[in-house]
Each structure stands twice: as structure tokens, then as C-alpha cells.
Amino acid sequence: MSKAESEKLRALVDWQCGVISRHQAEAAGLAATLIDNRLRSGRWQRLQQGVYVTFSGAPSREAVLWSGLLRAGQSAALSHQTAAELNGLADKRSSLTHITVAATQAVTPIPGVRLHRSRLLHDTVHPIGSPPRTRVEDTVLDLAQSAVTFDDAFGWLSRAVGRRLTTASRLLNALESRSRVRWRRELSVGLGDISLGVHSPLERRYVTSVERAHGLPAARRQALVVIGGHRRYVDNLYEDAGLVVELDGLAAHPPEQRWADSHRDNELAGVGLATLHYNWHDVNEGSCGTAAEVASVLLMRGTLVQLRRCGPGCTAVAHVGSTPRS
User: Fold this and answer.
1) For the CA atoms of 54, 59, 64, 69, what is the dihedral angle to 10 degrees?
2) Which of the ends of the chain has fewer CB neighbours closer than 10 A, N or C?
3) E strands within the chain?
């Protein structure tokens, strides 16, 4: 092997976090007998068929990911949960490495890898990401398409925007570039809600199942309230009525959180803002009762409300003006 070939091989191995395929090594000028000697001596380790790590210690996470990519072929890219991990969208590793290859590419099953196929792979791969992975927007849409429920799908969209990894506009552009999309209309509407400050599936359910379904006026989302020089953001603010609706993701909070919520409500009351709190059950199974309660408080505080039934069995209209639920 010449000096130039040796430097080329070293640069490639460094780029791939210590991993190289047999084809790459031979193309760089390394003799097959030398490759086999290094494997027999333990200087190199086999991670996948025809893919090796060029040191004797435990391989890093990046090395494992590279080994799957090199085994899958040149056009492969990390995707779905694995791309979410690398892009800062997921907080923990998935048990399998998710890799997407071109729809026409022939790939045999790979241990530890879940293979996906795409006709648009070339257009969805991050231009400079290493190891190669799908762009944030396409990762989000891939995960949304594989979600079991729409709430789970929406959760990926809101998380990506909430973590400032992308924007609702960029996600919408990526959505429109795809010809076949499950929940297309719902995702498009959801992205519009996200752009207005809806940050979670629970907040989306409040907007769709409580507000829109019952004809309530639209609140301002993630509204800024300044109290004593301090900036606070509230989930939903009905400004004309001076009413705040906060949404709590957990049915029960630890004592310190409950105290924080109480202090926050007291501060809001000090500037004339009333506060209502609702949880997941309230905006799903109890959406009609929640709508009636919000409507009653809005009416009491001078806001015109034209409440409507969300369906044949809706009880919201009948209960407007009744005593708020405990």
C-alpha cells in the first residue's frame, strides 16, 4: 500500500468512527490477506458481515451505527427513531438501529437493524449529517407515519417545533412534498395549530375537542403575561374575559408542583385573571362538561358565547350556567 493509499484509508476510518467495510479497505489498497490477519489477531473486529471496527476495544455507539450503514449499502441513511436520537428529537436509544434504503435496493436482513424503504431517500437525507441520517423534517414525518395514533403523530411534530429543531412552516413544506401521507389533512391543520402556540397533544385536544367542537371563542396560545416585571406564559388566555385555562399533563402533581401552581394562580388573580385547570380526562372523556364550564365563566365575565353541541349526545349546552365542577 502506498503512502497516499494509507492516508486515504486512515481518513476514511476516522470519518467512519473507526469502522470500514471490506470493500472499502480493498479499494483503498489493503490486501485481503492483511485484512484477514488483522481479524485473526484481534486488532480488528467484525461488527457486521463484511464490516469491521479497526480497534480491539468496545465499539462506540457511532461505530455500531456506521457498521449497520456500511452493511446496508452506499445509499443507506439512519432514519426514524435512530435519526430522532441523533437529531435531538428522542431522549433515549431505540433497541434497534433504523435504516432507510432506496426502494429498489436489494438488502438482506441485518442483525440489530430494522430496514425501511423509500422512493424519496435521496431528497430526505441530511446534506452534511454524519453518520448519514434523514433530515429533521423527514425524520418527524417518518415517525408520524409509523405512529399508532394521531395523538402520537402530533406529539412528534409538536416536540420537534417545541425543541426548536425545525419550524411548523418547514414541516408543512416537507409534508406537501410527499405524495402519499396518512392523516394529511389532520397533520396540516395540526401544524397550523402548532404555529399558533399549541405545544402538545393535550393542548391540541383542548383546541379541537373543547373549543372548536363546541363553538367557544379561540384563546391566545402560550400567551405572555407580565406580573410585577416577571414574564409568564399561560397555555390559553381569553383576553376579553380575563380567563386563563391551563392544561396539566398529569392527573396528580407532586406537592411542590401543586404549591407552584397555586402561587402562579394567586399571582394571576392579583392582576384580574381567573384560572381554570384541566387534565387529559377533562379534555377527552369530559370535553362537553369542560366546554360548558369554560363557557359559563366566559359568560359571567362578559364574553359573548354561542355554545353548540359537538354531537347528538353532547350535554354542554344544557349545563351552561350550572355550578362549576369540583
Assistant:
1) -10
2) C
3) 19-21, 45-48, 51-53, 77-78, 97-102, 113-118, 220-227, 230-238, 243-247, 274-278
The pair phi, psi for residue 166, each rounded to 5°, is -160, -170
User: How far is it, in rounded angstroms, from Cα 135 to Cα 78?
Assistant: 10
Residues 129 and 154 in one domain: yes
Domain for residue 325, yes or no? Answer: no
The cell 381567573 sits on which residue? 274
pTM: 0.84
The domain boundary residue, chosen from 177, 195, 213: 195
CA dist 37 and 45 (Å) reads 11
Nearest to 73 by CA among 39, 46, 100: 100
User: What are 120's three cell numbers?
Assistant: 424519496
Range of 155's domain? 73-195
Exposure string over 57-81, b if 16+ CB within 10 A, otherwise e? eebeeebbbbbbbbbbeebbbbbbb
Task: Give yes or no for a contact between 315 and 285, defined as CB atoms under 8 angstroms apart.
Answer: no
Q: Which three cell numbers stand for residue 218?
A: 379561540
Q: Identify whether the C-beta of residue 165 lies closer than 8 Å to the C-beta of residue 89.
A: yes
Does 324 fall in a domain? Answer: no
Q: Model confidence over 161-194: pLDDT tens digits?
A: 999 999 999 999 999 999 999 999 999 999 999 9
Of 65, 92, 118, which closes a domain? Answer: 65
pLDDT 10s digits, 275-311? 999 999 999 999 999 999 999 999 999 999 999 999 9
